[in-house]
Design goal:
- GO terms for molecular function: ATP binding; ATP hydrolysis activity.
- InterPro entries: AAA+_ATPase, ABC_AA/LPS_Transport, ABC_transporter-like_ATP-bd, BCA_ABC_TP_C, P-loop_NTPase.
- Keywords: ATP-binding, Nucleotide-binding, Transport.
- This protein has 258 residues and is of the alpha/beta class.
- It folds into 2 domains: 171 residues, Rossmann fold; 79 residues, no CATH class.
- Helices cover 35% and strands 24% of the residues.
- β9 and β10 form a beta hairpin.
- α5 packs parallel to α6.
- The radius of gyration is 19 Å and the shape is globular.
- It starts with 12 loop residues before the first strand and ends in a 5-residue tail after the last helix.
- Bound molecules: adenosine-5'-triphosphate (ATP).
- Adenosine-5'-triphosphate binds next to β2 and α1.
């Protein structure tokens, strides 16, 4: 049994795709993908190299326009919506570490991120009360993500794992309903993997998380739902115990496990 098999009914669906497909010049990269992502649940998208995981991510965030299918966010059809609007509606993709400013401190990075959704960055002069609110929110975000001890460290001086957590913190400044993480454990040592996994679990108590992840022990540990792609199509879906016992999944992963 997966450590996080859902014992109770899943909360509401916040992001769903039906019949999602993408062709590139006649090559079908993604075909007939159905997906339901739930509030307060961690959903993994897994599959061997070239299975279509990144393409599905790009379709959901609207960085790519689907060839077929329909996507709904919080009950609204976003199939034709532009990526910036989708982000403002609450579907936010965590960019890679380069989104963090290396020479700013941890606190400064979070403050910069917080100024964006509040529209404060466009203001020349800020009333003291706005700054106080901003500082309080920044400190709260740092505390939530275990970054308080590093608040005055330059981002460049953080460990790889902490940089990833800071990057997640800047994304959370937008207060997303759905957070998409692209291989959050990539390139990390075991200690950082455990720390970041704990943070993602915490973050997901307030929102949905959809992640592409190659580290299957992390998927087994923290993900409530797993969708397995192969050659652009779903070959299995369910909790980790269910999909890992599926003969098609075992065959797909033979020789591909990392
Ligand atoms: N812009 C593109 N033009 C043509 N083919 C593409 C394009 N983007 C992706 N593909 C193809 O679509 C398929 C799925 O690619 P995708 O990157 O989504 O897979 P993935 O599961 O994310 O792989 P990986 O685990 O290696 O990152 C691959 O065969 C890839 O070559």
């Amino acid at each position: 049994m997966s450590a996080v098999a859902a014992e109770v009914a899943d909360p509401r669906v916040v992001l769903s795709a039906r019949g999602l497909g993408k062709d590139f010049a006649g090559f079908t990269a993604v075909n007939d993908v159905d997906l339901d992502v739930h509030h307060a649940r961690i959903h993994a998208l897994i599959g061997p190299n070239g299975a279509g995981k990144t393409t599905v991510f790009n379709l959901l965030t609207k960085f790519l326009q689907p060839t077929r299918g329909r996507i709904e966010l919080l009950g609204t059809d976003i199939t034709q919506t532009k990526p910036d609007k989708v982000a403002r509606m609450g579907l936010v993709r965590s960019f890679q570490i380069s989104a963090v400013f290396p020479h700013l401190t941890v606190l400064e990075n979070v403050r910069v991120a917080l100024q964006r959704p509040n529209g404060l960055s466009t203001q020349f002069w800020l009333p003291l009360s706005s700054l106080d609110r901003l500082n309080a929110r920044a400190e709260a975000l740092l505390a939530d993500l275990g970054l308080t001890p590093y608040r005055d460290s330059r981002a460049a001086d953080l460990s790889y794992g902490r940089k990833r957590v800071l990057e997640i913190a800047t994304t959370l400044a937008l207060d997303p309903e759905v957070l998409l993480l692209d291989e959050p454990m990539a390139g990390m040592g075991q200690e950082d993997v455990a720390m970041v996994a704990g943070i993602i679990r915490e973050v997901a108590t307030q929102r949905a998380v959809l992640m592409v992840e190659h580290n299957l022990s992390v998927v087994a540990d923290i993900c409530h739902h797993v969708t397995v792609l192969q050659r652009g199509e779903i070959i299995a879906a369910g909790d980790y115990a269910t999909v890992s016992a599926d003969p098609r999944v075992r065959t797909a992963y033979m020789g591909n496990e990392e």
